Amino acid sequence: MNTRRNFLAGLGAVSCLACGVRRASAQAPARRQISVGGTRVRAIDIHCHCVVPEVADIVKGTPMEPRHAATVRSTANNPTIAARIAAMDQMGIDVEAMSINPWWYNASRDMARRLCDAQNEKLMGMCKQAPDRLTAFAAVSLQFPELAAEQLETGMKQMGLKGAAVGGSVEGQELSHPKFEPFWKKAEELQAFIFMHPQESAEATGVAARVKGYGSLANVIGNPLETTICLSHLIFDGTLDKFPNLKIAFAHAGGYLPSYSQRMDYGCREINGCKDPKPKKKPSEYLKQIFVDSMVFSGNGLRHLVAECGSSQIMVGTDYNFGWVTDPIGHILDTQGLSDADKIAMLGGNAAKLMKL
After folding, report:
1. For the structural domain made of 32-355, what CATH number should be given?
2. Which of 15, 285, 314, 331 is 20–30 Å from 242 (CA)?
3. pLDDT by residue (tens digit) across 106-148?
């Protein structure tokens, strides 16, 4: 019977249901949907970090153990998949391409193989748990270039990984050294996406003693400087001429080169700063051949990056989960002077094309 008592009881039930929905919403914020000019855009992050603590068992009792432990500590609050996706939802990131900063370049061949195999298996497992949200770059043993080429091929063809993550140098050797050509040849052949991120950059660049004790200066200066040096060698030493179809993306907006590219041109052409054979193009022109993330921190910086590299060469970088970029999507959406096509390309179009997502 539809009595007043039953009616009030029904209202109470609806009220409790509404409270439950509000509580659930408070616990799980709605996924941020990104649109540009009325078009839904799939945002893809190419610069986000993870670690595999489980390989501690492999390095236990070896000289590699402290290095791995330091890496785990530095990758603050290595998140669960649920926490990672919740953060993605909040930022508006639809797909993350995860990478592990290389910390194993001083490992023996056998150790390096075991470490990379274990980490790639873990990455594959993570991606399978959320295949529409997560993908990853393979860990490779770049100190053994033929092995790295093998690991890249296995990662892409058998594990579904999208390429490889590499450091800016390998135990003091530049990535332009001829020894690494088997890896670059394989990467070009597979059309692999290679993501370059510095590791131990203050030491690698020689600035460690000068920034010691100054908080984040080792990162503020060291990381973009290591990226700058790495990219400069790939240009000046002819690697990008030998392998013109490489798909390499450089962290931290390509370092300092996009802000000072004409000095690079002048140094190479006017004062003979390049070795023979000289690059086939002006050094600055290679900025339109490589790719960079969007990790500059102002609209002016992003507009300049577009002017130097082109919007077709820029992709979202969040540096998750280190907190360097608070609103990576808004950074692109809110920058004045960019066309809708520019924004759509940078937010996800470029990355989707390169990684065949």
Report:
1. 3.20.20.140
2. 314
3. 999 999 999 999 999 999 999 999 999 999 999 999 999 999 9
